[in-house]
Here is the input.
Amino acid sequence: MEVIRLDETNLDSSAARAAAVLRAGGVVLYPTDTFYGLGADALSDKAVAKVKNIKRRDEGKPIHAIVSDLGMAARYAELTDDARLLAERLPQGQVTFILSAKGGSASGGKKKVSTGIMRGIRTFGFRIPDNDFCLALVREFSRPVTATSANLSGRSPERSVEKILAQFGTAAESLDLVIDAGELPAKQPSTVVDLSEATPVIIREGAISAADVWNAIRVGA
Here is the structure.
């Protein structure tokens, strides 16, 4: 397992190294603007399976990704007016969007992406992080990166690499690269909003209150 201690001087080189690991099908433990995450190629069946095995995650439970911007998200999801409004009016990184996956008649007959985190489901969940390393990573990789929290399913996420590795136990051996940014500050997780149907649904209330979500949508209506 390779370990890189992240600081202001090596952010770009660390992101480049992490992207190289992702291109090779590997899994990276990396810091985000909420928790440490498990990063893999979000469109690769094999890479996503590795993440689920490390987490001991139920095969049917969806995993979301980080993207660099709405432009990248639009390659894989049907962007809605509500999604654009929320991205414009609410703080970056604090909302996870669930949208209908691109494909079918709604996309002019384009072939739907049905691999990785979109395998067996009709939605694409993503977040645009407010974190320099995350943005550098996803821009270098040029594809969505899984952003599921680095913890065993059913266990609380830890905020330091040492505690995360201890929680994973022998599963930590499946990590190819660790980007260590020290202990992360306590923050709320993102608010998850499902915009894949006509009526938005708040799946999880987190950093953004439900009231702020509804207000942002109403203001733009």
Observations:
- The domain at 2-77+106-187 is CATH 3.90.870.10 (DHBP synthase).
- The first strand starts at residue 2 and ends at 5.
- The chain has one domain: 2-77+106-187.
